[in-house]
Amino acid sequence: MMKVRLEGNCVHVGDRFAVSFQRTLRIPDDGNTYPLPPGLGLLPVHAVADYRRRAPAWWRDDDFFIPMYQREALWLGFEGAGWKPNAVQVGVGGINAISGGSWPRELEASPQNYIVCPDQPWLDGINTGTGLIRQFVAMPLGSGYTIEGQLSGDERVGGLQLQVFEPKPGRFPDRAPPANHTAASQRMRLESIASGPGLGLAAGGRMKQKVYRDVHGIESWDCGNAAAIFVHIVNSEQYLAMTGRAAPETPVSASVYTAHGLPWFVLYDEAREEIEGAVRLAAVESTADIDKARTGRTAANDRPIEVSADQMRKLKGKTPFTS
């Protein structure tokens, strides 16, 4: 079984895979489709074992936790080795973020309920349509906004779950070729417990992003050699009570960021085949949908913004077995 360890603010699994949790702009939930927003710095990640006396009793010592503000967005950044990739399942509150199925569950090819890292460099939200996702946005458990609450009828799990699988022996090289390095996301990164329920993830604005089809085939992955990660999400008050530290300040709004002419991103990956969106996830109501049903109003941060052509930065997609 692969070892899981925390190094800096990245969770590493085995010798090659790592995941980071990137603060980002919450794009408007206005019915439009937006390009990729930037990373605004890594969210701090902590091991529950280091805060056992202040952590909820049901948390496991080998879990992790991150702080987020209500309605703040994040994306997951993946690192891996192209010469020996990993299959990865992503869950949000016990719901598979790729297929909309239950969690945990074995790897499935039809519909594909996992991604392969590399080539998938990041994941910003749930897979709702071919080439489209809805952004991960933090909301309190019990509020009725979360993906978990809408699809399971309950809001008890919260947080993020990942399951990382090794390939079967002999499917890929055991050693890196000369001058090969661990793949890292090309996307720009701008570096800059109290009682009560934690946070889960709701569906935010719509974004262009492919979830790539597994070109290696499901038979490449060793279901008996996997490691599971549970990342709890706490609000700013819980984070202060547990760690004695203030949570990072809430990031700039998408409208202010764009008004200052700062960049957005588009990935050149036209040749990559994506999987279809999950019908179950496409039916999830977004935060703006629920807001409007409850209050009849649209939040200021969900008003449309215009991203000019000169603000777009083009990223070159990676191909299998490159780094």
Short description:
The chain has 323 residues and is mainly beta.
Average pLDDT number: 91
Q: What share of residues is helical?
A: 10-25%
Q: Strand content of the residues, in percent?
A: 25-35%
> What distance separates the N and C termini?
25 Å
Oligomer: single chain
Shape: globular
Helix-strand pattern: EEEEEEEEEEEEEEHEEEHHEHHE
Report the total helices.
Answer: 5
Structural class: mainly beta
Radius of gyration: 19 Å
Give the number of DSSP strands.
Answer: 19
Task: Characterize the largest beta sheet: strand count, sense, and whether it forms a barrel.
Answer: 10 strands, mixed
Return residue spans where pLDDT drops below 50 for at least 5 consecutive residues: 318-323
Q: Mind sketching the topology for me?
A:
Layout: E1 4-7, E2 10-13, E3 17-24, E4 33-34, E5 39-42, E6 46-47, E7 64-67, E8 73-79, E9 86-92, E10 95-96, E11 115-117, E12 122-123, E13 125-129, E14 132-140, H1 147-152, E15 160-167, E16 199-208, E17 221-234, H2 236-243, H3 254-259, E18 264-268, H4 279-282, H5 287-295, E19 312-316
Parallel strand pairs: 4-16, 7-17, 18-19
Antiparallel strand pairs: 1-2, 2-3, 3-5, 3-8, 6-7, 8-12, 8-14, 9-10, 9-11, 9-15, 13-14, 14-16, 15-17
What characteristics describe this protein?
10-stranded mixed beta sheet, mainly beta, 7-stranded mixed beta sheet, globular, disordered C terminus, 323 residues
Structural overview:
The chain has 323 residues and is mainly beta. 10% of the residues lie in helices and 33% in strands. The chain has helices at 147-152, 236-243, 254-259, 279-282, 287-295, and strands spanning 4-7, 10-13, 17-24, 33-34, 39-42, 46-47, 64-67, 73-79, 86-92, 95-96, 115-117, 122-123, 125-129, 132-140, 160-167, 199-208, 221-234, 264-268, 312-316. The strands form 3 sheets. Strands 1, 2, 3, 4, 5, 8, 12, 13, 14 and 16 form a 10-stranded mixed beta sheet that branches. It starts with a strand and ends in a 7-residue tail after the last strand. The model is unreliable at 318-323 (pLDDT under 50).
